Here is the input.
Amino acid sequence: MKYDPAIEASALPYSPFKSCTVPRPIGWLSSISADGIDNLAPYSQWQNLTFDPPMVMFAANQYPDGRRKDTVINAEETGWFVWNMATYDLREAVNISAMALPPEQSEFDIAGVTRRSADLSSVPMVAESPVHFECRYLSTHRFIGNSKVGTIDVVFAAVERIHIDDAFLTADGRLDILRIRPLARLGYHDYTSVTETFAMHVPNASPEADDGLEGQPARRSGVPSMRPPH
Here is the structure.
């Protein structure tokens, strides 16, 4: 089968689009409003952009009534948000935090996770998560969709501080992915977690290209910080 999604519906009973680009990492994002109300929500449109310096993005669809997501507003107003790694052990908390709550109610409390203070801002982090990125807001690119739900805000940010629980590092200093079991989004109501890994090296790759695949910055010192002065 084939179809043009801009002008016709799929012949399948459920749209296959979100089930094709899988698995997708989950942006489990915590933020805080200008009034001091914290927020926690998962986003399945989340990704790294580059690694030198580390930058990330997430896309947030509007609510059916046209309201923008709290995470977007909070990031724009305060300049910060935190990515908390979602894991299999935290799957129920991730799912609960997806509920649409009033802005004055915190998902931290509903999901039953522990707040931990970030270093660079007042944004709380999920203490039970093994990895956190403190993200400084850069900009929002807004795309108008065919409906209010189809309209999205794409938020870009720089990763200014990375927290890793040492208990989830291997003896040679790598993330112990099989112990962490990162959670990932599939289509429909389906999720998965990482339970198997394997390595492949590009044949005849140059050292510079291999560094790029590893995500290792070319320079380790003497690089001006992108972080604005406090």
Q: What stands out?
A: The mean pLDDT is 90. The chain has one domain: 24-214. Residues 24-214 form a domain with the Pnp Oxidase; Chain A fold (CATH 2.30.110.10).
